[in-house]
Amino acid sequence: MKKRPLRIKDIAEILQISVSTVSRALRDTYDVNPETKEKVLALANQLKYKPNFNAAALASGNTKNIGVVIPFITNYYFSTVISGIQEEAYTNGYNIILLVTNDSSERELSMIKNLSVTSLDGLLVSISSNSVMSNHFQELTEEGVPLVFFDRVPDDIVASKVLQDDFSGAFQATEHLILHGYTKIAHIAGSEHLSFTQRRLQGYVSALEKYDLPVRKEWIIYSGFSQQCGESDMNILLNMKEVPDAVFAVNDRKAVGAIQALKKRQIKVGSEFGVVGFTNDPISTIIDPALTTMEEPAFEIGKMSCSLLIKHITNKHFLPKEIVLPGRLIIRDSCLGASSSLID
């Protein structure tokens, strides 16, 4: 079996000092006690430690380049986030370099492990939907690499994070359906592994519980985020013995897929069946009927993420922050069911 390479974390554990102290000692920075630095260098030499030059280059903070790891580039949400990142980066004299994973955890891991030497000052990351391990990001943070997560964020890493208020947005979307007379509301969710999928699910469940409506597990379907997945999920719901009368979709693409499935069965969307999405993708105004949705502050998320990363790059002692931005309910025609007394 191939032996795992020695890491900075191993040296830190042996010497009973912090990972960041070892990292700074190996980089010969001014703020490390000379005796400590000598011990670190002696042990590293004894153990034949080979530094991770990619991580060291990332931590050096002098290239004026920022890496942006994203699942998609053609997706409306992510393209808008990138616009926000670019605006903030340009204002502060930074360039951005896109690393597109195509929503593959394997590609994500490969990209992080093979980052270009001396090319980046830090990373902005939105993880892939099937990422169940985040050791590759944890190692970067332990080695002092400036790192900020946005939108799709891991729960098990202490780092700066910027995201929309998924719980509140999902609650408002579901409550809007309830207030318009729908009582049998399903949820077509995203990947079960993603924290924002779970937060939107919790918001949906909380709204149902507030109005004493049943939470039926068979009406909660996990799948991908595409329009095709939305159509497939809706067909599963429509083929059940008891069919819901409304659906809250994890994003607009899935909501549009659901509307297509309903229209193919001659079910009137907006009156007989309510649909609410999440994003405010331009497709939400093109589909007929136009889609009621929760608008995400994508541009602001991009700007704030980049601003936080630059603070980490320029100040190694800047503490991690989590910033949650509110969304906004956009009311259109896909949810105009029989008025309930709750509206009055």
UniProtKB/TrEMBL annotation:
A Pfam match: Peripla_BP_3
InterPro entries named in the record: HTH_LacI, LacI/GalR-like_sensor, Lambda_DNA-bd_dom_sf, Peripla_BP_I, RNA_pol_sigma_54
Entry keyword annotation includes DNA-binding: yes
Keyword Transmembrane: no
Single GO term (MF): sigma factor activity
HTH lacI-type domain segment(s): 6-60
Protein name, as recorded: LacI family transcriptional regulator
Keywords, ordered alphabetically: DNA-binding, Transcription, Transcription regulation
Domain of life: Bacteria
